[in-house]
Design goal:
This is (wild Malaysian banana) hypothetical protein. GO terms for molecular function: methyltransferase activity. InterPro entries: RNA_methyltr_RlmE, RNA_MeTrfase_FtsJ_dom, SAM-dependent_MTases_sf. The chain has a domain of about 80 residues: Vaccinia Virus protein VP39 (Rossmann fold). The protein is about 45% helix and about 15% strand. It is built from 5 helices and 3 strands; from the N terminus they run ααβααββα. Strands 1-2-3 form a 3-stranded parallel β-sheet, sandwiched between helices.
Length: about 120
């Protein structure tokens, strides 16, 4: 296990965290948030999530990058933050996330993602 991910002695730690911040999946949200705090991986405008089903990380990413600050900056620049989630299985609709159901190794799927990003 990586040294930057905290391990809670009980399950209540991640649950309290996710409930406090309104995240969908407690463990995924906690891990993603901790990784971001350590490495600033979400200091970006666009995110592509591969093998995204069931969608927990995509949901968390959309909440973390699609903040009021980004909206203010983006509206001025005309470029909103964009999250694309690609997976073989269907996912529930997530606000701010473009979903592509398909195989990430398929050229057709790559073309669909390319049209979304351009």
């Amino acid at each position: 296990m990586s040294d930057f991910i905290s391990v809670y002695p009980t399950r209540s730690g991640p649950k309290r965290f996710s409930s406090r911040f309104g995240f969908l999946s407690e463990r995924s949200a906690l891990e993603l948030r901790q990784i971001d705090e350590e490495f600033d991986i979400l200091e970006v405008k666009h995110v592509v999530a591969l093998c995204a089903a069931p969608g927990s990380w995509s949901w968390c990413v959309s909440r973390l990058i699609f903040t009021a600050l980004h909206l203010i900056i983006s509206v001025k620049c005309g470029d909103l933050p964009l999250t694309v989630a690609i997976g073989l299985h269907s996912m529930d609709l997530i606000d701010g996330v473009n979903q592509v159901q398909g195989d990430i190794t398929n050229v057709r799927t790559a073309e669909v993602v390319k049209t979304i990003l351009l």
